[in-house]
Amino acid sequence: MAEEQQLFKITIDGITIEVPQGTTVLNAARMIGKEVAPPAMCYYSKLEGSGGKCRTCLVEVAAGSTKDPRPMPKLVASCRTVVMDGMIVKNKTSERVIDARNGIVEYLLINHPLDCPICDQAGECHLQDLGYDHGLAGTRYEFKRRTFVREDIGPYVQLHMTRCILCYRCVYVADQLTDHRVHGILDRGDHSDISTYVSKAIDNDFSGNMIDVCPVGALTDRTYRFKNRVWFLKPMDAHRDCDKCCGKVTLWNRGDEVYRVTARKDPWGEVQEIDGKTAWICNTCRFEKKKASDWTIEGPTKIDRHSVISANHYAEKVQPPDPLNKVLFGRKPLLLMDIHEVSKVNTPDIDLSKIPGPATSTTFIDRDEAKDIEQAEAERLLINDHKELP
Amino acid sequence: MTKKLLLDKVHVEGIRNFDVYRREGGYQSVEKALKMQQDDIVEEVKKSGLRGRGGAGFPTGLKWSFLAKPEGLSRYLVCNADESEPGTFKDRYLMELIPHLLIEGMIVSSYALGSTTSYIYIRGEYDWVSDILDKAIDEAKQNGFLGKNILGSGFDCEIYTHRGAGAYICGEETALLESLEGKRGLPRIKPPFPAVKGVWDCPTVVNNVETIAAVVPIINDGGEAYSKIGVGRSTGTKLISACGNINKPGVYEIDMTISVEEFIYSDEYCGGIPNGKRLKACIPGGSSVPILPANLLLKTAKGETRMMNYESLSDGGFATGSMMGSGGFIVLDEDQCVVRHTLTLARFYHHESCGQCSPCREGTGWMEKVFQKIENGKGEMKDIDLLWDIQRRIEGNTICPLGDAAAWPVAAAIRHFRDEFEWHINNREECLIRNYGLAHYADPLEAVVS
User: Fold this and answer.
1) Are residues A52 and B361, on separate chains, in Cβ contact within 8 Å?
2) How large is the ipTM?
């Protein structure tokens, strides 16, 4: 038996969990669940070295560890901070964190074109989700936004640099999945540009994974561009025998037509791990196998990810007032009576076999009761008349 | 007259040459240090109370003692000569005029840290300084102070200069290491700190030029003697590069016991403000530190005289104090406009932001645009609050201190000179024609000059 791994106790937003040594705060929060997991735009658990850049996952460390319970003075990036035993972290319960996160969303959006209505990523965009959760209703930025010319990098991928939030994920993909990277960040600061060196095409079997890791719509699938909206498509798990990759994908269908093929995603929008390996897919599977007959379909994909499309749960949503009381003027609604309690149909006083012909409503009520109903009806009309007077 | 430790022999004829430097008592500390135990040197530096001269003021001895010493990994000393802070030029002065002092300090420090390969990362724009250092290294090598088996002690050391490409961000220690390795100068996420995992993933110490030079007098005279100079925890001497509206701009070596008032007005140092103008404001430690209006500069909020040392300059926190920083002393007289001045700084930080993390990348550019708007007579009152909001959310939320450095000057300008911003907004046409700012901040102390 190997040496037992030491477990560290960490409390995030009042929920305690034990995690193995070396886990980051963000991953510990993800183990607890969606409610406490900080958002992450640049961190990608499958890409080594990613994270720490977007600063949306900032959390407050209220106590560093049991040994040294001092709080950390600055907010820390949870994706790159390793859990210490007895650490107490505040995420959504900290006003500082929420304020900083609101600020970061504002910074990310000031130069973002907000062209969601025509963006292929809309509906599965992390920035869109983040904007709904933390963004302002309007912008305070009144200057010209930074723009770039659209660029086709290679036969399959189009780059919309204007939408890019410089998370560097696609750079890590090219570094870690493909045999050589031909694109990267050019220039510096807010005029940084992701591009290829001297317009070189990205031509690599795994370059399509850049599209999957892009948190926004900066890198889009040229074979799928403007074909459909993601929320109209039905995701299906499927596989095929592929000599380059694992061949396990999600097909996005509408009717019988396969509109696009992506890798399988986990609830955090990252490519899933299948059999201990990250299920990146190759360009052949992604771009060239667009017929349902190319695939063995396993069944519908369970989408378990918070997204704008599935959300519709706005905080402090104002419910419309119930109009029923107003239109009834305080009367008891006759229609909403439980017919079984009020009516004598089910417990008739008379023997139905003895009456001539079929039973009608008058069969069950005696004369007095019929009079009462008539009178009530008359009164109701009278009240209505009265109410309508000026 | 303060006793000078670093710049004492600067004006000796030909001090740049090895022979003259050696004749004037140079390289004695190497001879002395190589006979000492390595840990004793670290101990001596600890005793001296020397604090990092690059800006943060972290005790150097402590930093050295944090250096991890794992088996089988080499350790490195890197000298941060990427001096790019607006208003700071002390390191250039030192390297240009007395390069052997730095080389001497490098050899002693390398020996103390066990670094057999040490680097001087020098700013790209200092190309001629780099040549001067290269020549000094060559001379030291020829005379047996560098290379294999230095002075027969068995200690090998090589020093290389590495020229940067002119990015301010490469003055941040981890970005410097990235740049040294030949990558983009992007700051690393800490931890791990360079003392554990620095250049080529090996334990590394990064020190400022002046810090390394200060090791020489510490070894020569002993840490005890060094710690007696200065006051409190601000020991030794500090180079201040004074510029702006003063009669005698230049680099001065002070022993941190003089007051700010004396530094500005005495003839030994800055020599007062030219043309009989009055002092309005001052940035005491390089462009990143908060600006202080004259009344808070000369006296602390408690009414004590403000001295030129780490503690006194930071007295009152950022609300009423500032920082020693890297010693770039920028003086503004009554004619200067704080809004335009801060715009210049905001433009600088926007241009130099590396673009790695979002608050700094987007926020610095936004701040510059808002400043341009106010400066060009299109400002609105809400813009001041907007600026405050932007800087507040940058500060502390970034990977490296560049975000803080961009936010602090803006925060301090709004904190202390808010009505000057308001004046720009209320007098849109006037601020375009005559951009003087408000003179009423100017200090009543003008009598000292006249």
Assistant:
1) no
2) 0.87
